[in-house]
Hints:
The structure holds 2 protein chains of 2 kinds. By secondary structure, chain A is of the alpha/beta class. Chain A folds into 2 domains: 1-30; 41-184, 3-Layer(aba) Sandwich (Rossmann fold), CATH 3.40.50. Helix content of chain A is 40%, strand content 17%. Chain A contains 5 helices and 6 strands. Chain A has helices spanning 3-23, 53-66, 89-108, 123-133, 153-162, and strands spanning 41-47, 69-77, 112-113, 116-120, 138-142, 166-170. In chain A, strands 1, 2, 3, 4, 5 and 6 form a 6-stranded parallel β-sheet that branches. Chain A is elongated and about 85 Å long. The termini of chain A are far apart. In chain A, 37% of the residues are buried. The model of chain A is unreliable at 25-38 (pLDDT under 50). Chain B folds into 2 domains: 3-235, 3-Layer(aba) Sandwich (Rossmann fold); 257-383, Rossmann fold. Chain B has helices at 35-48, 64-70, 93-99, 122-131, 149-156, 166-171, 182-190, 197-205, 210-235, 268-282, 300-316, 328-339, 362-369, and strands at residues 3-5, 23-28, 53-57, 79-83, 86-90, 103-106, 135-141, 174-178, 257-261, 285-292, 319-324, 343-346, 374-377. Chain B has a 6-stranded mixed β-sheet with strand order 1-8-2-7-6-3, with helices on both faces. In chain B, strands 11-10-9-12-13 form a 5-stranded parallel β-sheet, with helices on both faces. In chain B, strand 12 (343-346), helix 13 and strand 13 (374-377) form a beta-alpha-beta unit. The longest helix of chain B is centred in the middle third of the chain and has 26 residues, at 210-235. Residues 7-13, 235-254 and 384-390 of chain B have low confidence and may be disordered. The interface between A and B is large, with 48 and 40 residues.
Amino acid sequence: MSTGAAIGIGLAGLIIGLAAGFWLPPHGLRPRRGRPQAVRRILLPFTELGISRRAFEAAVRLAQAEHATIMPAFLARVPRQLPLDSPLPVQSSNGMPLLEAIEQRAVSQGVAVDSRVARGRTYRDALRRLLQGEQVDRVIVSATDSPNKGLTADDLEWLLERVPAEVVILRPAPQDTRQISPNGVAGHF
Amino acid sequence: MPELRTPEGVGAANPSPTGRGHHRIFLGMAAGVGKTYRMLVEGHADQDAGRDVVIGLLESHGRQETARLADGLPVVPRRRVVYRERELEEMDLPGILGRAPELCLIDELAHTNVPGVEHRKRYQDVEDILAAGIDVMSTVNVQHLESLNDQVDELTGVRVRETIPDAVLERADEVVMIDLTPEALLERLRAGKIYPGDRIDSALNNFFRIENLAALREVALRQVAEEVGHRRLTTAGPVPGNGQSISAEAPRAVGERLLALIEPYPGAQRLVRRAWRSAQRLGAELDVLWVKPPHGALTPDQERSLAALRQLASLLGARLWVEESDDVATMAAEVARRLGSTYILLGRGRARRGLARLRTPLPQRLMELLPSVDVRIVADRATRPSGERS
């Protein structure tokens, strides 16, 4: 090979390299974060009252193992005297930081997140409405032995009977007092 | 005298579906701005229109203009109440209810009644009158609002003892702010139109100082602006559905208004939530805008994300707008101008490829197109390395 040909090949390689560098996104061919390609979706419903850290960790472990997307869903109760599509700023002021905290923790552990919010007259009604429009493969909920703490035993029974997805109910445990706290949100949220 | 009104109709034209009377409150920054005068003018107008109008309680404070204006309006006489061996006069609530006019004019809503009558406060009497289906016009100064009492004390050094709960103002069908510049009010005071001559100097040296009046005026204007904003939010219908356009008549906000630019993908929810928190802190309204490319259908993922964003916006009381254009910056600028946005929030955006890298980035274009609007890029804090948090 002559020197000229070698220089030509070298220049061509350089041009192709530059063009590829120009054309491709700065992060190369890595998949876009935040736009999960996963097909499996794990629903993690919670209310303004909080979410057990055990339920969250179980969802993360499963999502990591199955390359699934976690779908944390904030369920809000609309008082009877308000229309069902009313804004709920008070409940949201608890729910949104929780949602943010869940997202941040999940993403920091390499799990894709696609959040939802749903309203209903009861938490179960909100969940039912959410599931009418969403397909999920799993639902993870934490059973509770204390009334007025989110989903009741009846709600869980309803979930098992009516939801066309695998339902994982974590039995009550002393660690349930450990909850995801909105105070853990990074930044000023 | 200038006025600001909350956006509600007049009682006669809009009878309440609940049978409750219509309550219009004339709010001012201080005595002498013309609240009572204005109430009487409107009372006459209603009487001329054929309505049965009575004066339930009038405090003219010896102002001749006001007393003259009351002529021609029937008055429900005050009743006499004996308290601690003194005979005092109070508004006659049973008399008004028995007379059952269509409209009753009642001055000084924050007044405290003499013990022994039906209620401790006059605004409670007014509640009974409204409940009887009688329309009421009443007057109050901003410093009598419970939540503003401390603030007014700090601003003016004057603590007002007679207060009314803010809910009274919130429940009113209309709040009309009677505004007057501090200079004009002082002019009225010096001319003896507010207090008799022997009280003018004392008033000028105490409450009626220009800095007090300017501060109170600002408080009153803000209060009504907040009321207007609140009513616009609570009376607005549900967030509209797919592909709606912004009409030219879209109402403009008073104060701050945030516009979050989104695309339908899961990460956009974080942007909306952050924008909402900022809006809460600023006491501002929030709009969410997706500039949709004109060609191409949505993928199922995008449809799901858009539905989720719509739910989120609705829950948070934000409005979601979808506008079609292939020029995001120009369309966003146009929408921001129409809505009167003062902040635009956007995410970091996707990495640009190919020739797109040669174009001016979106935030810079927005800053060029909207020099008076703040542009904020919301950090993707979810990607920040973090330690164990609980």
